[in-house]
């Protein structure tokens, strides 16, 4: 059955189309030099203002490209991702200091008419690629070829293949709490969009849910339950692999908030291991190779994984999440969301 998530588009919209970002009350910061001391003038080619302007343009272009890539690939569901990003930004209006400056630097185009027009033109350009080629890996690679710089991010491999403790008697049918990284994917791959068939466009996406969880717009308790089953010394996701993907993503960015999951344990049946009535089994992670064993899952539309990252192949969605304000603010700031 389709997943009944609350799309960000249905949440209260910001007060105006643009995002009101925090800036100093005056147009300039106070000059720290004592009275009578003149600031040295740099050569025009090395002007601090020109270097700062260039770095702002690079940061803004990066944010614009990343959001346009994901939104265009998601099609109609991309509008919900954009709405979620706008809500994340509006929640950060009160942030001060370097976080506010960084936020304004990256996302200022969303409140400028010319910037928004440039973003929409870029999204249309990327959308044409996906409409022509389909929402498959090769189309996403073509879009990435238009980026001013290739995607980057920390390289990391999944945790070792240690076994989980044997479940106690009476666990099956009960709610249990598990370390997020210890819950393994049953599927080798999965679509990034929730829902099935024609309903995928209205059901949101893994990336949208991850952004809403990190920003506190969606609480973990509001995410529909998913189940796990015990198999070969590990807990595997029996239902809800996409939801698990979102939680595994946010656990990477905020382990202190998403280090554990509350899930329901169910029996491991033949449908999970062998399938039934010519339908493939739920457990297909072996198709990713013998070293995977559920530690990561591939997102079909991009070929990227959730659960690990390799050189030149960053983890799915990390390029967007690392540019949003919740990746820069401390735990005391996150606490104010709840």
UniProtKB/TrEMBL annotation:
This is Uncharacterized protein.
């Amino acid at each position: 059955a389709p997943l009944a998530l609350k799309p960000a588009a249905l949440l209260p919209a910001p007060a105006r189309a643009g995002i009101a970002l925090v800036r100093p009350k005056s147009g300039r910061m106070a000059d720290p030099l004592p009275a009578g001391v003149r600031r040295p003038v740099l050569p025009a080619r090395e002007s601090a203002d020109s270097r700062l302007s260039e770095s702002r343009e690079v940061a803004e272009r990066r944010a614009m490209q990343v959001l346009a890539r994901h939104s265009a690939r998601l099609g109609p569901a991309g509008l919900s991702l954009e709405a979620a990003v706008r809500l994340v930004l509006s929640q950060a209006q009160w942030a001060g200091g370097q976080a506010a400056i960084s936020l304004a630097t990256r996302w200022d185009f969303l409140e400028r008419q010319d910037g928004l027009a440039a973003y929409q033109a870029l999204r249309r350009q990327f959308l044409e690629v996906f409409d022509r080629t389909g929402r498959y890996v090769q189309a996403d690679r073509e879009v990435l070829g238009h980026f001013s710089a290739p995607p980057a991010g920390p390289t990391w491999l999944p945790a070792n293949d240690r076994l989980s403790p044997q479940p106690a008697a009476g666990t099956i049918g009960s709610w249990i709490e598990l370390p997020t990284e210890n819950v393994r994917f049953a599927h080798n791959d999965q679509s990034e969009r929730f829902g099935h068939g024609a309903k995928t466009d209205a059901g949101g996406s893994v990336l949208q849910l991850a952004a809403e969880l990190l920003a506190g717009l969606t609480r973990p308790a509001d995410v529909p339950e998913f189940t796990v089953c015990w198999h070969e010394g590990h807990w595997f996701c029996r239902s809800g692999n996409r939801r698990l993907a979102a939680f595994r993503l946010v656990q990477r960015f905020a382990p202190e908030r998403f280090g554990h999951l509350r899930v329901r344990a169910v029996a491991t049946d033949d449908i999970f291991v062998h399938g039934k009535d010519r339908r493939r089994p739920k457990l297909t992670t072996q198709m990713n190779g013998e070293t995977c064993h559920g530690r990561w899952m591939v997102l079909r539309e991009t070929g990227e994984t959730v659960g690990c990252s390799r050189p030149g192949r960053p983890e799915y969605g990390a390029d967007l999440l690392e540019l949003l304000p919740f990746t820069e603010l401390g735990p005391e700031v996150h606490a104010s969301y709840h």
